[in-house]
Amino acid sequence: MDKLVIERSGPLCGTVSVHGAKNAVLPIMAACLLSDEPSVITNVPPVTDVFTMMEILRGLGVGAALAQDRLTITPDAYTGVVAPYELVSRMRASVCVLGPLLAKRGRAKVSMPGGCVIGARPIDLHLKGLQALGASVEIKHGYIIASTSGLRGARVQLGGSFGSSVLATGNVMMAASLAEGETLIEQAACEPEVVDLANFLLTMGARIEGCGSRVIRIRGVARLRGARHRIIPDRIEAGTLMIAVAMAGGDVTIDGARAEHLGAVIDKLTEAGASIEKLNGALRVQSDGALKAVEVTTLPFPGFPTDLQAQMMALMAVSRGVSLLTEKIYPERFMHISELNRMGAQITREGASAVVKGVESLRGAPVVAPDLRASAALILAGLVAENHTELDGVDHMERGYAGLEEVLARLGAKITRVKQG
Ligand code: UD1
Question: Could you give the dihedral angle defined by the CA atoms of residues 164, 168, 173 and 174, in that order, rounded to the nearest 10 degrees?
Fold first, then answer.
């Protein structure tokens, strides 16, 4: 597996464009299963999770071809209903084929996703929602086996102990689009990726109202068409780059970064000392790298995203004063603390919070990325650390970031990939 070698770099300068959002494209690929007609999706990021979802679709008998950023999905003759353990264990988002398969084929057999390194990841809300629409569900030999003789619209509450669920909202919205009658999803997730999925479904001919709010109304239709759709920009990639510039200093324009998707991030980076200017279709970030402590709590959208928590912790590690970071979505998502501390950070965990005492400087060290977003946090830490940092576990980064090291290198970061094996 490759390694990244990161040297102290900065300031970062120039203009970059963000890719399409990984978290938007995955459920949209699953939504293609709702039609017999081909769909064309553009602005698709070349990340491993997209390739895994293509494998899942192909396993169901669906054509999936990616040329540049354009993905063509051809579901005309698919009969498969199984998403196997080997693929679902690689990517939890595979569970979003459950709703479409059930609605279109009346049956689905999807491996239980299980937990992952960021903690327990239950799927009770997905199952509750689909059962409310009339599906029978049983768990057998590690598989969710769901069937229905016809889904019917219903009132569904999707609030859980940690807020609403993004992919459960997606799963129920997709299934309800082909159900008979009206579905009301209450306590729905409001994330921009849910809105992008709804926009895709609307283009397919679905009847959906209220997306982006806490209550979504769906009136089922008998069939859905194929559709063309451009994926929204990745707010997590944009936020990661914004944090990088705030830490390393510099002046970078991030094309495609949408202020309306990044309000909480803009707010916290400004409070820490960076300057962020809203341009037409872009955000410009300027910083001298001298930052001060902030308090951040991760929350469902429009709160600060959990997928930027690790990167923000890297920023806090080199900010003057004591920062407090509280994780309200995944209380166990703190695997990166020990790696950051190996680089000289002073972070202590207290339950679902981390207390981060800012240090003058981090020191480069060999580190291992424990998960996707933590990989980015360690790269950012490496950019401001003395000497060089060697990052292992780059495959995690590749699941969700398209060429992050190249994007940063274009801005002046000193990062090289060392091929191994
Ligand atoms: C999506 C994102 C992921 C992001 C997360 C939260 C994709 C592909 N992934 O994941 O990057 O970190 O939203 O913004 O879009 N929960 C339950 N029961 C359920 C489902 C979830 O209790 O049935 C809990 C989870 O454990 C978590 C919280 O609800 O504590 C939010 O999770 P959820 O929104 O479902 O995350 P995903 O949709 O899987």
Answer: 160
CA distance 257 to 247: 18
| Residue 403 to residue 237: CA distance in whole angstroms | 11
Handedness of CA 307, 309, 312, 317 (dihedral sign): negative
Of 121, 158, 328, the residue with max ligand 1 atoms within 8 A of its CB, to mutate for a pocket test, comes to 121
Ligand 1: does its nearest atom lie under 6 Å from the Cβ of 93? yes
CA-nearest of 149, 220, 222, 227 to 182 is 220
Any catalytic annotation for residue 32?
A: no
**183, 156 Cβ separation under 8 angstroms:** yes
> Cα–Cα distance between 378 and 151 in angstroms, integer?
46
Model confidence over 8-48: pLDDT tens digits? Answer: 998 999 999 999 999 999 999 999 999 999 999 999 999 99
Residue pair 421/23 in contact by the 8 Å Cβ criterion: no
Q: Count of alpha carbons within 13 Å of 123, Cβ hemisphere only?
A: 28
Domains of the chain: 3-18+233-418 (3.65.10.10), 22-225 (3.65.10.10)
Q: Look at the block and give the residue holding tokens 């705030």.
A: 246
CA distance 15 to 33: 37
Q: Supply the residue whose CA is at minimum distance from atom 33 of ligand 1.
A: 165
Strands 385-386 and 362-363, bridge-based pairing: parallel
What confidence tier does 77 reach under pLDDT thresholds 50, 70, 90? Answer: confident
Could you report the per-residue pLDDT of 176-217, keeping only the tens digit for each? 999 999 999 999 999 999 999 999 999 999 999 999 999 999
Residue 165 alpha carbon to ligand 1 centre in Å: 5
Write down the catalytic residue from 13, 32, 96, 116: 116
Kindly give, in sequence order, each residue whose CB lies less than 8 Å from that of residue 92, ignoring residues fewer than 6 positions away.
113, 116, 121
User: Per the confidence metrics, is the pTM higher than 0.70?
Assistant: yes
82-83 vs 107-111, strand pairing mode: parallel
**Residue ID of nearest Cα to ligand 1 atom 12:** 307
Rounded Cα–Cα distance for residues 55 and 34 (Å): 17
Report which DSSP code applies to 221. -
Which tokens go with 66? 């990616």
How does 349-376 read in b/e, with b if 16+ C-beta sit within 10 Å? eeebbbebebbeebebbebbbbbbbbbb
**pLDDT for 113:** 84
